Amino acid sequence: MKKGFIVLLVITMLFTVFAAFSGKESIVICASAEQFRNDALQAQLSERFPDKNIIVMYMSTGKAAAKVFAEGRDTEIDILVGLETGYMNKITHHLADISGLSTVAYTEGLTPSDNANHWVTWERQAGAIIVNRTVLDKYGLEAPKTYEDLLKPEYKGLIAMPDPKSSGTGYFFYKSWVNTMGTEGALAYVDRLYENLKQFTESGSGPIKLLKQGEVAIGLALTFQAVSEINDGQPLEIIFPETGSPYSLTGTAMIGGREVRDDVVEVYEFIINEFLIYDKENFSPEKIYEGQINKIENYPQNIVYADMTGIQEIAEKERLLALWKY
């Protein structure tokens, strides 16, 4: 608790320093995406609004939510980008009503009105079973086709997955097992899977890094990261689980009270109506809106998604993480 408070205090001080040196009122955007995506957002905002002092800062989704939860509408943050929607639900009372600001034709169930008009969906982060064909061939192994296959003894020490307690990616795999196996069945499955794991990684990108290094043959990981590595020549293959591709959702919101600041609203509208489309076309292409175009080479088409009922419920996440013993 003390460590978390110190982290939030340091973050607050950094925001204050940025504002002081700018000489004008800043617009602070807290973004939880990969740095290259945040850099692209900063570049486009600087080009579109050269007269505004806009700061895009990375903060993990959990830390960003904790900061807003603790500080409320007095936080230095003006706009949140890429925050897990479970956390959005937890801080909804600190968010502005953004009714009518979005012009994107979202797919069914993802419209702003489905989020009580407090945020718009930013992305669907989806995963799959990713294999390194070279490592499999080294051990003379066939690629797994199902989650049950991952329990085969020949894969012992050759599998990695993100830790659900520190990674949203790890959590959505865990939640998908709960939805198909029940809580007790999922926990029993993890007990058996644990025997084959090389390690739980702290971040969602951890399994991809281990696959690239040849340290594991199989990883439970994000599809878009796997495709990026495949396009760079890595010998990876994507296998979608029999129950569908598991996923979580993130959102983008304005902090309550900022709706009276025209400059913040103008920037927010650009993010949710223009940069959102650029980001989906070029970086994170899992479908969230009608007519969405995917410009990423070799990206799987017609993906069938898993039943992720409850993925946005923070109470359910806290319940399941309390049961996670690893």
Q: How many strand segments?
A: 9
Count of separate structural domains: 2
How large a portion of the residues is in β-strands, by DSSP E? Answer: 15-25%
Rg value: 20 Å
> What profile does the largest beta sheet have?
9 strands, mixed
| Beginning-to-end CA distance, first to last residue | 21 Å
Helix content: 40-55%
Structural class computed from helices and strand pairing: alpha/beta
CATH homologous superfamily label of the largest domain: Periplasmic binding protein-like II
**Helix-strand sequence:** HEHEHEHEHEHEHEHEEHH
User: Which CATH architecture of the largest domain?
Assistant: 3-Layer(aba) Sandwich
SSE arrangement:
Layout: H1 2-22, E1 26-31, H2 35-48, E2 53-58, H3 61-71, E3 79-84, H4 85-90, E4 120-132, H5 133-138, E5 159-162, H6 168-194, E6 197-201, H7 206-212, E7 218-222, H8 223-231, E8 236-239, E9 247-254, H9 262-282, H10 314-323
Parallel strand pairs: 1-2, 1-3, 5-6, 5-7
Antiparallel strand pairs: 3-9, 4-7, 4-8, 4-9
Description:
By secondary structure, this protein is α/β, with parallel strands linked by helices. The chain has 2 domains: 158 residues, Periplasmic binding protein-like II (D-Maltodextrin-Binding Protein, domain 2), CATH 3.40.190.10; 142 residues, Periplasmic binding protein-like II (D-Maltodextrin-Binding Protein, domain 2, 3-Layer(aba) Sandwich). The chain is built from 10 helices and 9 strands. Strands 1, 2, 3, 4, 5, 6, 7, 8 and 9 form a 9-stranded mixed beta sheet that branches. The protein is globular.
